[in-house]
Amino acid sequence: xxxxxxxxxxxxxxxxxYSQKKLTLVADLRNAIACDQGLFLHYQPQFDxxxxxxxxxxxxxxxxxxxYGPLPADEIVALAEQTGLIQPLTHWVISHAxxxxxxxxxxxxxxxxxxxxxxxxxxxxxxxxxxxxxxxxYDIPAGQLILEVTETVLLKKxxxxxxxxxxxxxxxxxxxxxxxxxxxxxxAYLKKMPVSELKIDRSFIQELCYSHEDQxxxxxxIAMCKxxxxxVVAEGVEDRATQLKLEALGCDRLQGYFLAKPLLGSDLLxxxxxx
Length: 275
Ligand code: C2E
Ligand code: CA
Ligand code: CA
Ligand code: CA
Known about the structure:
The chain is built from eleven helices and nine strands. By secondary structure, it is an alpha/beta fold. Strand 5, helix 6 (158-170) and strand 6 (174-180) form a beta-alpha-beta unit. Helix 4 runs parallel beside helix 5. The radius of gyration is 21 Å and the shape is globular. Ligand C2E is lined by residues 44, 59-61, 72-74, 77, 93, 116-118, 178-179, 202, 235-238, 256-257, 262.
């Protein structure tokens, strides 16, 4: 009887507040995408290990919520994935990144542009067409674009995902395997996927100078990439010692707060002009 009177058995005020916040956020995110308000992009430079020059940038999503303030990118993406907003959000990211990148090319800087994709994007019907159209619209050579995906792309619908990746590479677009080493069967994926770049996860980089294990792992990944003809990028380089270590190990590209924080498009242009 007590149960009947309490349809809210298991009700928790905290959980309720959380789902309220989530509902608000979903509505606000939908609105932010549709009205192009509050969302913006950062560009984090990637440096050539040998010359120290900027070779490319990774696009990172930012959302400054009017009430909650800046929200972490992975939370925004997870929210969009759960609510069917990942498709319009990715379209928003690509078009804004291309528009900014067009200015970079026009200014004469031939760097690469890396964009993160959600695994859900790979199962979308029109993404390939959307990307091809936008490359055309902004007059961007496909060979300058790198799409970053994680190993999870092959967990579900592996055939469909692989077909999609092959179509991208047929257009001349490059694929980077992101967060390498954090999944369960990284090597099997590396064998199957048409990958031209591999990004060593920052969990292997952050204690590189103090951990013998990390050194052996990173050294082995770099040697493997050389053998496979795959470009290798280290992310999360936070100090000079780590930079020097990665240079000594023969890493191709470096990315991290020590070298450059994620920048606004205008600051990226200034930084490129001053190098
Ligand atoms: P990620 O792809 O692994 O991106 C690298 C993350 O490391 C970024 O976090 C970047 O700001 C951060 N980072 C860069 N250098 C350093 C460093 O030296 N130290 C440390 N501790 N962190 C560093 P951010 O911007 O918070 O993005 C988090 C994740 O959100 C990204 O991880 C990516 O998975 C996802 N994400 C970001 N933007 C997008 C997007 O436009 N689309 C999709 N699908 N996912 C995105
Ligand atoms: Ca990434
Ligand atoms: Ca990563
Ligand atoms: Ca990630």
